[in-house]
C-alpha cells in the first residue's frame, strides 16, 4: 500500500493556514493573510498549493443536526458471512450513496464495518436497518444509539 507522502514538507505557516481554515473555512484570503502576517499573494499561493496537493479536501459548514430534525445518531456494526466474497465490495459501493450514513469504516475485531448513521426518529432508523437487512451476505447487524453527544469535532489535531 502506497503511503500519502507530501510532495513538499509542511512548514509552520502551512500548518497555521490549515488550523485557521479548520476554525473558519469561510475566511477570506486577505483575512487569512492578515492573521498570518503575510501579504495576500504569498498566502494565496500557499493556500492553492495546499488545495492542489490534497491537504484541503473542500470547504463546508458544520450544521446542527438536531435543528434539522436528525435526532437519532447510531453506531452500526455489521458483519458479512464471507468477507472473501464479492458482497462486501457491493456493500461498499451501495453505502456510498446512502445519505443517512455519515461515515463507514472497514474495521478489525468482531465486526467487518462500522457506520455512523443519522435518522429523524426511531421509525426512520428502523427503516434504515430494514434496508440493510435485505443486502445479500450480511450475517449480523448490531446497533448502539448515542444517548448524549459529549464531544463533536471535525477538526484534525495538527498539534500532535
Automatic annotation (TrEMBL):
Molecular function via GO: sequence-specific DNA binding
GO cellular component, one term: cytosol
One Pfam family linked to the record: AsnC_trans_reg
PANTHER family listed in its UniProt record: LEUCINE-RESPONSIVE REGULATORY PROTEIN, TRANSCRIPTIONAL REGULATOR AZLB
Protein keywords: DNA-binding, Transcription, Transcription regulation
Xref: CDD domains: HTH_ARSR
Gene3D superfamilies with a match to the protein in the record: 3.30.70.920, Winged helix-like DNA-binding domain superfamily/Winged helix DNA-binding domain
A Gene Ontology BP annotation from the UniProt entry: regulation of DNA-templated transcription
PROSITE patterns per the UniProt record, alphabetical: HTH_ASNC_2
Protein name: AsnC family transcriptional regulator
InterPro entries, per the entry: ArsR-like_HTH, AsnC-type_HTH_dom, Dimeric_a/b-barrel, Tscrpt_reg_AsnC-like, Tscrpt_reg_AsnC/Lrp_C, WH-like_DNA-bd_sf, WH_DNA-bd_sf
Record-annotated HTH asnC-type domain positions: 10-71
Coiled coil (residue ranges): none
Amino acid at each position: 500500500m502506497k503511503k500519502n507522502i507530501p510532495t513538499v514538507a509542511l512548514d509552520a505557516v502551512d500548518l497555521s493556514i490549515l488550523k485557521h481554515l479548520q476554525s473558519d473555512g469561510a475566511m477570506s484570503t486577505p483575512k487569512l493573510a492578515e492573521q498570518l502576517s503575510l501579504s495576500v499573494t504569498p498566502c494565496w499561493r500557499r493556500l492553492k498549493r495546499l488545495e492542489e496537493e490534497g491537504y484541503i479536501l473542500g470547504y463546508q459548514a458544520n450544521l446542527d443536526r438536531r435543528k434539522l430534525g436528525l435526532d437519532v445518531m447510531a453506531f452500526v456494526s455489521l458483519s458479512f458471512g464471507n468477507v472473501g466474497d464479492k458482497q462486501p465490495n457491493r456493500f461498499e459501493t451501495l453505502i456510498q450513496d446512502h445519505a443517512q450514513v455519515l461515515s463507514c469504516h472497514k474495521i478489525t475485531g468482531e465486526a467487518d464495518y462500522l457506520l455512523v448513521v443519522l435518522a429523524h426518529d426511531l421509525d426512520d432508523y428502523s427503516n434504515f436497518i430494514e434496508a440493510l437487512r435485505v443486502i445479500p451476505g450480511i450475517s449480523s447487524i448490531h446497533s448502539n444509539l448515542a444517548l448524549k453527544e459529549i464531544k463533536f469535532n471535525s477538526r484534525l489535531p495538527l498539534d500532535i
